[in-house]
Amino acid sequence: MTEDSVTVFEEENDTIIPLTKKSFKDKSQVNGSEGKHSDVNELKLENLIIDNPELIPAERFYASKWIPVAKQITLEDHYPDTVGVDDIGQLYIIENKLDTNADKKTVRSQIKEYAFGIRKLRNKPNGWQEFLDLIKDANNSDTDDVKRRRNLYGKSLEDILLENFNGDIQKSNDCLNKIKIKFEEGEIILIIAIDKIRRNLRTSIDGENELDGKKLPIFALEVNEYTTKKDEVIIISSTYPFDLDDLVDKKEADRIKHDKTTFEVAHSRAKLTEEQKEDFKNFKNKLGKICVKFNYNTGNDPAIRTKFEGTKDRGVVLLFANGVLEIVIKTINRWPEKQKKYKEELEKDENFKKLMNKRSGKLLRLQPEEWMPFSKHILSVLEKVFVDE
User: In which order are the strands placed within the sheet that holds 364-366?
Assistant: First the structure.
């Protein structure tokens, strides 16, 4: 990316023409919570992301989706624009700045102040509950801006998670507990949302990630809207760092690192039937023969991350020591044709397709009794998509 704006084109009558870039200032006025914003147009950027949560690349942090949970929570005299989480329990703060805002030079220090404000709560006897109360208080705001957000208004963090997990209380509670752990450990992913990423911001981000990228990884998200000739609106986004892999690796560095020994020890404790243990063993052995090598994950639950040729270290399946299998499709988005074929081949088995559809919008994480009847199908797809080509 250069200092110049990216030009976006569309095809019309066998020619390409540039699209019209929309200015956030051209939108209609947003009423309700301008008092907490130095620039009301940044509120429009904030709402664009909240209303389109898929703009946050949560899949690059091994999550399936990002979930906004509050706007403008009150941390003493600070008001973080957006607090969010993802479906594996990671915590996010977003600060929105437009390139025209003179205060954009301080955006890096602002977002760090917000992170430290949340971290300060950890030292209070009832800090976690206070954090939950701040979220609920922000969502109970009587401003029109908050009232319009049906995914937030009047809801607690527990309510929001339960809704996003389609009423599954166990999964919702598991996610809530993981968020609490991240809160207590002071781990927060920081995002600067902006309409133009300039060189000085990139330099600042690189410096911050060198200093504190393990606990407070930070990246910029450039977001812009364009109007097509048919008056349709499209959104174009990009990130800096452009490839978030290094940032993710830095963030993961302090987590538990597993190897063959820790995996096998955990597997020996797995609550599997004798038949399931045999199926697991056969699947693992055959998987080892078709992939390049086994890597092992980081985190609480040991798992094998298979490495195939041409996908770097993006694991396309994770085989957990407890018998769970996770089919990973979203994180190979840098290879769209391979990603598309992977999904299509898996769905060729109608019964397996039904199983996949039940996990729509979520990680395709399957219990032993769910995936083992399809083990041959899964192996054949992996070989066809990632080996034969």
Answer: 293-296, 303-307, 317-320, 325-327, 364-366
